[in-house]
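sorry for the late reply, my laptop died twice this morning and i had to redo everyting from scratch. anyway the thing you sent over, i finally got around to it. pasting the sequence first so we're on the same page, its 268 residues, then the predicted structure underneath. double check i copied it right bc i was rushing
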Amino acid sequence: MAEAAGAGSQIDTVMKEKRIFPPPKEFASRARIKSREEYQELWDEAASDPPKFWADLAREELHWFEPFEHALVWKEPFAQWFAGGKTNASYNCLDLNLTAGLGNRTAILWEGEPGDTRKLTYAELHREVCKFANVLKQLGIESGDRVSIYMPMVPELAIAMLACARIGAVHSVIFAGFSAEAIADRNRDAAAKLQITADIGWRRGKALPLKQTVDEALAKSPTVENCIVFRRDGGTGGTSGAQVNMQAGRDFWWHELMAKASADCPAM
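ok and here's the structure:
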């Protein structure tokens, strides 16, 4: 809100909020940082020696297949963090929770449009990620390859990202509202080898034909060899009416590949 005093006058805001709303004590007691003073102490520690601060946290909070030698190698303008170390984001997100006995805890609690829901435990998510990682390998994806992801906000998006990380592939997430030309630009820039998408995506009650858009983009993406399509419309009874063209030899349904995939895939 704002008010003006007249022609040529300055506009002054009337929304100068100065109130403070402290959290309930019970809630604050469960917080990792329980006070402003504790936060300031942590901030000061980080500011005084950033490499040591992040090195200590990395050793405490992350699993390393190979320990890093230097927290930061700084050669302006380039910075290399945790030089010499080897870790895996998928392992840290999933396997560590299984090792800690948290396999039955909820990892993903999802509600989509137009109202479908899904819950995945850490054990279930680990299984799905391992299976999709093997799908990627079966299609020739190796460590260092780039995978382009153009998907709606569904659990399979996270599964695809974690699966890429598990085998050392690089994922490039493209906003599922971008045009075919924007997808093609990013595919060419990344020299993407694989495209992952869905038949449709729901937004504000409207079904967006994602696969149709991807088909246009792939005509201008010479490095993309294969396309995996998640059947989003399958969960809504096929109500969108979107026509899905599957090009033989290039396009594969997510569910068909997953049905044949092994759930055993150690992190690299």
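The CA atoms of residues 240 and 263 lie 32 Å apart.
thats about all i looked at so far, will dig more tmrw
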